[in-house]
Amino acid sequence: MRNSQSPAPATGSPTGTGGPAPADRAARRAVTVFPLLVIAAGLAGLLSPGTFSGYGTDVPYLLGVVMFCMGLTMSLEDFRGVARRPWVVLLGLTAHYVIMPGLGWLLAHLLHLSPALAAGVILVGCAPSGTASNVVTYLARGDVALSVSVATVSTVLAPLLTPPLTLLLAGEYLPVDAGSMVTDILKTVLLPVVAGLLVRLLAGHRVERVLGAMPWLSSLAIAAIVAVVVAGSADALKSAAGTVLLAVVLHNGCGLALGYCCGLLGRLGRPASRAMAFEVGMQNSGLAASLATAHFSPLAALPAAVFSVWHNISGALVAAWMARRAPHGAGAAG
Fold first, then answer.
1. Per CATH, which fold does 22-324 belong to?
2. Distance of CA 179 to CAs 70, 105, 125, 291, 303, Å?
3. 77-114 per-position pLDDT tens digit
4. Please, which residues have CB within 8 angstroms of residue 157's CB and are 6 or more apart in sequence?
5. Which residue stretches does the UniProt record annotate as biased composition, category Low complexity (predicted)?
6. Any idea where the domains of the chain sit in the sequence?
């Protein structure tokens, strides 16, 4: 369970045989509580904007905390998983970075969004996979190993893919400094992830003792990001809330459905198709919020803040539905 924008994953992904590790149970609890925590943070930012609006410059550091937690939960086995099934991971990666950016651009046009909101929706689509996708894949009895592999690679490649895609699709709405965006992603995503991974490799069992706390630390950091983003555009949110929610629900829902269809069309089987659904439809909205705040405006970060809440709710509901339809014991870690 990996990535940013909801609880950081726990290592030792469940395989469908035996019970999950303690850290996995902590991650699942955090995923359940996370939407409530973020809703509370959003309400706090909306009702008392003056308390949080001055912390906009701290958003990248909060994201760095989330990504460091992610790195702590990673292991070399995650990268070996990519090597075992490269074409399947490539299919998931391609689906993610084609479907979600394309949907963001299409929705911006169909809903006639303002330039700031359009850029924000597109930026959410251009972000890598979201953290909770791995946990939700497990709950849906999906292919957890594939989910982890796609999430890991999409995050590592984000500095190379997110800025040019944003420039291509959002450049018609607002100026996009892709070079500066690359630098920001390297500083707030890749470096903290690598640092966390190195600490995990060097510290060994000492890190294992604190893995259960990582989902909660990630959740608190993301909640703080949402509070700051909402506070920065509290007045605009009151008039644009319905439009933003509609865009987010359509974006996430279509992503989940199209991701699942890609798995079926690729003849990957139902467990892998479930993983594809969540890897395509769930985004690293913490990164999107950070980039939107730094490069566009607080209003452009609103879609990412709403996405942070909604995709965890929808993911949990879809996972529960899939799990009920799956044969007992279905699902694989690869």
1. Na+/H+ antiporter like fold (1.20.1530)
2. 25, 21, 19, 12, 23
3. 777 777 788 899 999 999 999 999 999 999 999 999 99
4. 93, 128
5. 7-23
6. 22-324
